[in-house]
Amino acid sequence: MGYTRKVMEHFANPKNVGEMKDAHGVGRFGNTVDGDEVVIYIKVKNDFITDVSFKVFGCVAAIASASVFTEMIKGKRLEEAIQITKEDVSRALDGLPSEKIGCSVIAPDALRAAVDDYLKKQGRKK
Amino acid sequence: MERVYFDNSATTRIDTRVLEEMLPFFVHRFGNASSMHYFGREAYDALEVARQRTAKAIGATSREIIFTSGGTESDNLALQGVAFANMEKGKHIITTSFEHHAVLHTCHFLSGQGFRITYLPVSKEGLVDPEDLKKTIDKETILVSVMSANNEIGTIQPIRELAAIAHEGGALFHSDAVQSITKLPLDVAKDNIDLLSISAHKFHGPKGVGALYIRKGVKLRPLVFGGGQERGLRSSTENIPGIVGLGKAMELGMKEMEESVDKMTSLRDRLIEGTLSRVNGCHLNGHRTRRLCNNAHFRFDMVEGEALVLSLDMKGFAVSTGSACSTRSPETSHVLKAIGLRPEEGRGSLRVSLSKFNTTEEVNMFLESIGEIVERLRSMAPRGLGSGET
Ligand code: FES
How many angstroms separate the CA of residue A5 from the nearest CA in chain B? Predict the structure, then answer.
């Protein structure tokens, strides 16, 4: 199976795994058919993501994608972070097998939900 | 790191005794079995020895054995060969919903060619019910094809009974025996089998070579046309080293079957009981005892199969999520669907398949690691066991 070294590194030692009890925003995204799911927790200061963590149920590509994605968004402005696409995630992993590109979308989608949750809690979004 | 190979349903390591017999046929005894001269006769003789060994192992005569490139080709030749040679009699074929893709995809092709295909259901335990065959067979049925043991979950089918029903109904009976050769005593006469598919690399022979047993009198249309080798049923210069290897592996496998089956059965039971007792939320797929001596197929709640397989690989264990050909697809395997698993249940499946070369120490090493690996993956998941939120 064609996983790059980068994917395997993130899978073996995923960064930022775990629940964050005092998160400012929590977002969940999943695929209801087979139960793949990512939950992203963020802390925000002045619209910058100061901390992030995640939990995941999914294949190797989903785990590695979530891990590299959290590294990519740490320190970014919210608006900038939500622009990151599945292609960006795949590129950061030196590529994913084509049938696994779909798995890399769950983390960005979960982040969008987390940002919404944060903005709602702030009263900046209904 | 010490590596442990537990993926013997995908392929096995060649037995050195088999390799030794093959080697001279690459360099010194390299003749073409169709040539008239000494080199050719030497190759031809080797071919016939292999044919006799293969035939003897399953209770056939040598004229009833055709060499192919492997199980897939044997299945194709059996199904398409019978279908196209017997279509004036009828165009109905019966198989099961959890056959190997070599059978299923051939059936899909044949259905596009105007054949009617019936797929028998499979029980939760992975068994085909002969009563279902009785209900479906009709005057138009020309062939019934049921594997002797499933390649993913290892369950053993009642082929003797199924073959008898096929014959009563006037149909031929084919069995894909790729997983069962040298693990189950198969006798084409006693078991009433008309066509049987064999693949060498599943029992310590080389890859790229297989055989099809075709009962005398059964009409087949070839798939490969050319120089007329293999009684015109499979033209192409014979892969002599491979065929020699197949014959030797078959002979050794049958001679040593009792001993290796006993060994694998006890390792399998240790593996099954050990895993089930060590890991919460772990289940066995397929019947507990009516399964191949070398197959343990588990399902872990809230664990994803691919992540499990690669986690085990990082610890040195080579296992599989299901059948080797479907690991690229994130979809639940058709076998697990056939036994009624929901997609989310099928996700956490793991096939551990043994060979006569595996040892108790290797099984113990696996048992020491599996719990920890499953726990690590579960600890990353948003939901805990039993689906309560964490
Ligand atoms: S997360 Fe569903 S297959 Fe990758």
Answer: 13
C-alpha to C-alpha distance for A53 and B379, rounded to whole angstroms: 14
> Which of A18, A91, A16 is CA-nearest to residue A49?
A16
Q: Ligand 1 center to residue B347 CA distance, Å? A: 10
Report the DSSP beta bridge partners of residue B145. Answer: B174
Q: Which two tokens mark B229?
A: 């080798």
Which are the contacts of A43, defined by CB distance < 8 A and separation ≥ 6?
Answer: A20, A22, A23, A24, A49, A50, A51, A52
How far does residue A6's CA lie from ligand 1's centre (Å)?
A: 17
Give mean pLDDT, residues B203-232: 97
User: What's chain A's length in residues?
Assistant: 126
β-pair type (B92-96, A37-45): unpaired
Tokens 């003789």, located at residue = B45
Asked if residue B255 has pLDDT above 60, the reply is yes
- Cβ neighbourhood burial of B3 (10 Å; 0-12, 13-18, 19+): exposed
Regarding the beta carbon of A17 and ligand 1, being less than 6 Å apart is answered: no
Is residue B98 helix, strand or coil?
coil
Residue A27 at interface with chain B, using a CB cutoff of 8 Å: no
Tokens at B181, concatenated: 């050769």
Q: The whole model's pTM is what?
A: 0.93
Number of H helices, E strands in chain B: 13, 12
Contact at 8 Å (CB) between B20 and B210?
no
> For residue A126, what pLDDT band results from cuts at 50, 70 and 90?
confident
Mean pLDDT score across all residues of chain B: 95
Closest atom of ligand 1 to A58 CA is: 1
- Catalytic residue numbers of B read 325
Does B330 have pLDDT greater than 60? no
Strands B141-145 and B317-318: unpaired
Copy the structure tokens of residue B18. Answer: 């088999």
Tell me, what's the ipTM? 0.93
Neighbours of B347 (CB within 10 A): 28
Burial B205-229 (b: 16+ CB within 10 A, else e): bbbbbbbbbbbeebebebbbeeeeb
Q: Does residue B361 carry a pLDDT above 80?
A: yes
Tell me the C-alpha distance between B91 and B80, whole Å.
Answer: 11
**Quick check: B327 pLDDT over 50?**
no
